[in-house]
């Protein structure tokens, strides 16, 4: 998928996310919109996956360690055909498998997550298995920035470097906010880049909404043999919805009817703009 | 005591036998390869061994990732840390995600004797058996440990195993026979009462049975090596056929084997019960036998309790 198509796809996923959360009257709006571009880059361009064969042994693995921002993942997996798109209507409803966190009863989900600080350890195990078996797949693990306060993240960081897992890519969705406010007010985690470097990782900073830059960084990882890569993706919480961006309350606020219409109109206008620009590029 | 081989050594030797032909068997340690007796495995199968350092949360997560990739990881870490420090990883990464992770809690119960409550694991059965999808097993001796280890390699799914640190006296004559997860073993049949034990207390239960036999009491002894899924059928048969149940375990009296048996008995066939274990307090310091004796986990005390239980029932019947 080319850059314009990726950007259009991410915009449509955002619209799906908002509609789904509005319908369910539940969900993590902010974090799902901040990670949408990262997931779009991974699922539509970077990762080797096959929706028709979700357990293909040589597939790249994705672990959503910040499991609460699952909405964009559900919408992407449905769009790619891992499960029927109509099932998105069941999100968070009684008896659904599309719960508010990744659920491995759904094709395309590797592991159940939701308790923070677990994903990177699991990803280390998967990357280690690939190394021991001489397999070529890569493992991507998306973490939150608030999650960096979990001690187990750093246990896994140590192990990833210790075992030289250059098939492992950690990504931090650095939107700067967690449920109680700014990460730096709640529990200061900076300087993240030097912390991860000190733990033995190759660190790359990137604008987490710049599709060209994201694809370049994620496609080229690992850049340093013998080292895991940490992609520090600067993002904006609730990206794409002007009145929700950067507001902590939108961590898990649900848009009302009027807010949904405003948000969809903004995104539709952005999509139209992308199409015009894409058209110019092609001409 | 005749046996000098601790159960941890048996697990290592059994896994080494099987790992030759099964390259997916892996052992993980948290700076615990010595206390887990896994040094020989690490040496012989470096590609199938993973050292994680002192990081019990990480060891379970890594094992889950390995299992997800088709490996058969055995996490070997002190039961006190494994069952508490990493309980959320056990709940989510092992049980909820249903990964084929075998968690081997070593030096369990009061094995660490004088090291205090931080190193005792007397709540591990209570917490692990409350987790859906996780089997909980305590092998009784080295022979059963061997059978169990073979069964665990064949079994697909998460299991928590607890073993003690020191050699335990044999309760079986050999390692022949099959270990069936979830199936209690009738060690002695009897009709007057049943003693249900698990792990190292099976030996105590058998000794109590011998004393009772000399006094003309017919005592059934069940080795409930799998505490979850509990063999409810064997428990209820014991309740119906013998009318009295004593449980004995190296665990807090809250939430362990006794609680599991009582939950079944009270709902389906209530009979008088006694639960022997470690009371709700930081356990006193000492060697296993000393601590057991202090808390009444001895053949003599169990036999005495059995007599009182039976005579009470007999008196009631006579009235």
TrEMBL record, chain A:
Its cofactor is thiamine diphosphate. This is Transketolase, beta subunit. Belongs to the transketolase family. Keywords: Thiamine pyrophosphate. InterPro entries: THDP-binding, Transketolase_N. The keyword Nucleotidyltransferase does not apply. Pfam families: Transketolase_N (PF00456). Residues 10-252 form the Transketolase N-terminal domain.
UniProtKB/TrEMBL annotation, chain B:
The keyword Nucleotidyltransferase does not apply. Transmembrane segments: none annotated. Keywords: Thiamine pyrophosphate. It comes from the Bacteria. Residues 5-171 form the Transketolase-like pyrimidine-binding domain. CDD domains: TPP_PYR_DXS_TK_like. Its cofactor is thiamine diphosphate. It holds the Pfam family Transketolase_C. Belongs to the transketolase family. This is Transketolase, alpha subunit. The lineage of its organism: Bacteria, Bacillati, Bacillota, Bacilli, Bacillales.
């Amino acid at each position: 998928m080319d850059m314009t198509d990726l950007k259009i796809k991410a915009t449509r996923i955002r619209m799906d996310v908002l509609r789904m959360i509005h319908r369910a009257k539940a969900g993590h709006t902010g974090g799902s919109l901040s990670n949408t571009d990262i997931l779009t880059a991974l699922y539509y361009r970077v990762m080797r996956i096959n929706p028709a064969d979700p357990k293909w042994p040589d597939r790249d693995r994705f672990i959503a360690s910040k499991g609460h921002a699952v909405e964009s993942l559900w919408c992407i997996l449905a769009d790619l055909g891992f499960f029927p798109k109509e099932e998105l209507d069941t999100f968070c409803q009684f008896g659904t498998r599309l719960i508010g966190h990744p659920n491995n009863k759904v094709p395309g989900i590797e592991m159940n997550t939701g308790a923070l600080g677990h994903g990177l350890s699991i990803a280390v195990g998967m990357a280690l298995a690939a190394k021991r078996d001489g397999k070529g797949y890569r493992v991507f693990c998306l973490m939150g920035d608030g999650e960096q306060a979990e001690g187990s993240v750093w246990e896994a960081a140590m192990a990833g470097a210790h075992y030289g897992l250059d098939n492992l890519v950690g990504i931090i969705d650095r939107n700067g906010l967690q449920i109680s406010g700014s990460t730096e007010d709640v529990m200061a985690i900076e300087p993240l880049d030097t912390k991860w470097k000190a733990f033995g990782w190759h660190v790359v900073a990137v604008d987490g909404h710049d599709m060209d830059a994201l694809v370049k960084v994620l496609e080229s990882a690992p850049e340093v043999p013998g080292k895991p890569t940490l992609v520090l993706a600067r993002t904006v919480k609730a990206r794409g919805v002007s009145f929700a961006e950067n507001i902590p309350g939108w961590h898990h606020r649900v848009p009302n009817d009027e807010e949904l219409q405003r948000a969809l109109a903004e995104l539709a206008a952005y999509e139209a703009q992308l199409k015009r620009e894409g058209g110019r590029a092609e001409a | 005591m005749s046996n000098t081989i601790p159960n941890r050594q048996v697990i290592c030797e059994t896994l080494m036998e099987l790992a030759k032909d099964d390259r997916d068997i892996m052992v993980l340690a948290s700076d615990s390869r010595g206390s887990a007796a896994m040094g020989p495995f690490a040496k012989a199968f470096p590609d199938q061994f993973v050292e994680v350092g002192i990081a019990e949360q990480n060891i379970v997560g890594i094992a889950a990732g390995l299992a997800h990739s088709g490996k058969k990881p055995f996490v070997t870490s002190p039961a006190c840390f494994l069952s508490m420090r990493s309980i959320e990883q056990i709940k989510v990464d092992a049980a909820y995600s249903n990964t084929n992770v075998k968690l081997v809690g070593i030096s369990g119960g009061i094995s660490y004797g004088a090291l205090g409550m931080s190193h005792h694991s007397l709540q591990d059965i209570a917490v692990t058996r409350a987790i859906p999808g996780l089997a909980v097993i305590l092998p009784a001796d080295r022979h059963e440990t061997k059978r169990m280890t073979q069964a665990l390699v064949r079994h697909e799914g998460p299991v928590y195993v607890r073993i003690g640190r020191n050699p335990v006296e044999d309760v079986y004559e050999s390692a022949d026979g099959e270990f069936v997860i979830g199936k209690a073993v009738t060690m002695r049949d009897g009709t007057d009462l049943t003693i249900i034990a698990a792990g190292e207390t099976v030996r105590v239960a058998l000794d109590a049975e011998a004393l009772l036999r000399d006094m003309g009491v017919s005592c059934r002894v069940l080795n409930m090596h799998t505490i979850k899924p509990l063999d409810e059928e064997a428990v209820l048969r014991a309740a119906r056929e013998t009318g009295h149940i004593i449980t004995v375990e190296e665990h807090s009296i809250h939430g362990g084997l006794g609680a599991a048996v009582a939950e079944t008995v009270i709902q389906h066939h209530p009979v008088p019960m006694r639960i022997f274990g470690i009371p709700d307090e930081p356990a006193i310091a000492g060697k296993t036998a000393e601590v057991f004796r202090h808390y009444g986990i001895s053949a003599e005390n169990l036999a005495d309790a059995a007599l009182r239980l039976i005579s009470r029932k007999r008196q009631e019947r006579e009235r």
